[in-house]
Amino acid sequence: MAQHQLHGRVTCVASPATWLSGPDGRLGGGADGLYVEDRRAVARLEVTVGGAVAAPLEMRRTGAASAVFAGVQDGLTVTRSRLAEPLGGTETVTVSNDGGEARSVVLAVDAATDFATTGAVRDGLTGSTVDFSAGDGGAWWARSADGMAVRLDATPAPEGLLRWAVTLEAGEAWSVELRFSRTDVPPIQRAKRFSTLRVAAADPRLDALVRTGVQDLDALRRTDGADVYYSAGSPWYLTLFGRDALWAARLGLPLGVEVAAGTVRALAARQGTAYHGDTEEEPGRILHEVRPADAAHRLPPVYYGTVDATALFVSTLAEAHRWGMRPDAVEALLPNVEAALAWLAGHEGFVAYRSTGKGLTNQGWKDSGDGVQFADGRVATGTLALCEVQGYAYQAALHGADLLDAFGRPGGQRWRDWAADLAGRFRDAFWCPGGYPAVAVTGDGERVDGVASNMGHLLGTGLLSAAESAAVAGWLARLRSPFGVRTLAASSGGYDPGSYHAGSVWPHDTAIALLGLARDGHRQEAAALIGALLSAAQRFDYRLPELYGGDDDATPYPPACRPQAWAAAVGPAILTALLGLDVDVPAGRITFDPLRPSPVGAFRVRGLKVAGGELDVTVDADGAVTVHNGPVGVAFLLAGGGPARIGRPTSAVSAG
User: Fold this and answer.
1) Fewest CB within 10 A of the end CB: N or C in the chain?
2) What is the reported pLDDT for 646?
C-alpha cells in the first residue's frame, strides 16, 4: 500500500476538523479534504475562473487553523482564504482585477465528498464521490446512506449551479464565501485561547518553536462536555488517545493545568470497569483511543489496548496537582487513581501485555508490528514487559502514594513498598551484559536486547540508581542523531532510519529523554538534545511532525501527522528543562535549577502559568535567574544556592 505524502501538504486544524491540501489549495485526490469527526466532509474542491485553474503564486499559513493561497489567472489574482472550525470550515475566494480595464468572468466551484473515514483514507480504501446538490433554503447538501450530512452555504448565493458571473472594474475585487458544516453531529464549542506563553531568546529558533507549538496545541484542543484535552494529531488521530493526550498534557504543563485536568477527567469517565475481550477493557484500565461509532476502522470505537496509559494517568494527575490543579478536583479522582494502581498491581510479575490477535500487536508507544526488536533484528512476540512501562509504573506508585497521603487516604506505604519491589526485580531482570536495560523482557524471561530509545523514558522516574542513570545517558548519546534520539541503534540488525519505530526520530520521545537527563543531572547531554530538536524544528518550519527519518538529514516520513500534539508540546517541555523547573504548589514553592551554560543563550519567558498566576522569568547565558513576576503566595527557590535577582514577589531563597 502506497503511503500518503503528507509532508508537503498544508494543514489547517480546529479539532475535530482539519483541512488538508497541496500548496496550491486544491482538494483533488489522495488524502486531501476537509475532515470532521473522523469522516471526510469534502473530498474535492476545485475553483476555476474563466474555465481555468489559477496558476499557483503563493501560500501562507496565517495560523494553525488558517492559510491563504494566491494564484493568477489571465491577469486576475485569485485568493483562497481558508479557515478550519470545529464542525467544518470556510473557504473565501476573492478575485481581484489588477489590470487597467473592466473584466467579466465566470467563477465556478466543483465540490464533492465521499464520506470516507480517516482510517479508510489512510489505507487507500475510499469509494466514489458524491457531488453537492442544491436543497431547500439556498443551501447545498451531500448526504450518505448512513446518515452523515454536510451542508454548503455560499454567500452570495449562486444562480443555479455553483457559478457566479462577475464583472470587475479596474482595481476592483469580488468575494464568495463557501461554508461547509457537518450537521449530523452535536455542536462543538470552540475553547477560548488558552495561553499567552512566549519566549525571547538569543537563539531565535526557540521563540519560533514555542510560538508554533502553542498555536498548534491550541488548535488541537477539543472540548468533551466541560473537559478539554488535546486530540492526538492531524489528520489520522483527531480524537482522544489515552497515551498521547496524557503525554501532551504533561509536556505542556507550562501552559497551565486546565488541559491536564480535563484530560484526566475525560479518561476517568471512561476508565475500565469490567472485562471485555473484544475491546480489551479491564477494571481500572485507561483506554487507548476513542472513535465515533461511524468512523471506527479496524479497532472498536472504544479500545483499551494500551499497557502504559494507566500509569501515565496517575502521574499526570499527580503532576497537575503539583502545578496547581484545584485540590477538590484532584480529590474527586482519587478512586480512579486507586483503581488504576490496582490494575498495575494485578499483573503477575511485571506490567506486561500479550496481543489478542484482534487489536494492536504491541501496546506500548512503539505500537507497530516490528516496534520491539532484538539486537539481531528479530521481532519480539508473545508476552512482553516493556522497560519504560516499568518506569512509568514505579513512578505512578510513588505519585499515587503521595496523592493518597496528601488527602488523608490509606494505602500510601503499600504502594511505596510495591514500587521498591518492582525496582529490585527490574534490576535483576532487565539489565543486559552490555550495561543497558533491555527494551523488553519476554514472558519466558528472555531479554529483548535491542538498544532502543525506550530506555530514555526511565530517566527521571526514580527507578534507576545514579550509576544506572549515567549508563543510560551514555547509551542515549550513542543513539543521538543530529536531530534527536533514534528509536533504534544504527548497530541493530533491524535498523532502518526511514521506518516508523526502528530508527526514526520522534520529537516527543527525545523531549521525554531530555527532561529525564536534566532531572538526573546529565546536563551536557540534555543541552545536546535541545540543540538537536531546535535544528529539527528549523528543518520543518518550526512545526515538528509526528516523526522523521533518523538519518543525518531529518528526512520527512511521508504519512506523519503534522501537527501532532506531543510533538507540538516539545517547545514547552524544552522550557521546563532550560529552567530546571520543579513546581510544588501544595508545598508553596517553585524551584529553578537552569541548565548552565544556557544552550540557547540568555532568554526570557513570559506567561508561564502556575497556580492561577503567570511567571515572568529571565535566565542569563550563565544561568543566573531573575523572577520579574509570579503567582502570589509561592516562594521562588534556587537549587544549589546560586545567585538570583528577584523582582516581585520577593520571596526567593536558596534551596541548597
Assistant:
1) N
2) 67
Gap between the Cα atoms of 258 and 566, Å rounded = 16
The per-residue pLDDT of the chain, averaged, comes to 94
Pair 27, 43: CB distance under 8 Å? yes
Closest CA to 48 of 125, 136, 111: 111
What is the DSSP secondary-structure string of 9-63? -EEEEETTEEEEE-TT--B-STT-EEEETTEEEESEEEEEETTBPPEEEEEEEEE
Measured between alpha carbons, how far is 580 from 628 in angstroms, rounded to an integer?
17
Render pLDDT for 496-508 as a digit per residue (tens, 0 to 9): 999 999 999 999 9
Q: Which residues contact 345 (CB under 8 A, 6 or more apart)?
A: 418
Return the closest-CA partner of residue 115 out of 27, 39, 26. 39
What CATH superfamily is the domain 10-182? Glycoside hydrolase, family 65, N-terminal domain (2.70.98.40)
The C-alpha cell 499526570 sits at: 316
CA distances in angstroms from 223 to 163, 230, 293, listed in the order given: 37, 9, 18
Taking 60 as the threshold, does the pLDDT of residue 1 lie above it? no
pLDDT for 89-125, tens place per residue?
999 999 999 988 999 999 999 999 999 999 999 999 9
pLDDT value at position 643?
43
Contact by Cβ (8 Å): 374, 295: no
Q: 357: pLDDT confidence band, cut at 50, 70 and 90?
A: confident
User: What's residue 499's pLDDT?
Assistant: 97
The CA distance from 480 to 22, in Å, is 33
Cell triple for 206: 526557540
CATH C-level class of 198-579: mainly alpha
Cell numbers placing 407: 488527602
* Distance of alpha carbon 611 from alpha carbon 632, whole angstroms: 9
Distance CA 33, CA 20 (A): 5
* For residue 191, pLDDT beyond 80: no
Q: Provide the pLDDT confidence category of residue 137 given band limits of 50, 70 and 90.
A: confident
Looking up cell 514555542, which residue turns up? 210
- Residue from 447, 429, 433, 426 nearest 374 by CA: 447
What is the Cα–Cα distance from 5 to 557, expressed in whole angstroms? Answer: 8
Give dist(CA 528, CA 485) in Å, integer: 10
Q: Return the half-sphere exposure (C-beta side, CA atoms, 13 A cut-off) of residue 418.
A: 27
**What are the domain boundaries of the chain?**
10-182, 198-579, 589-654
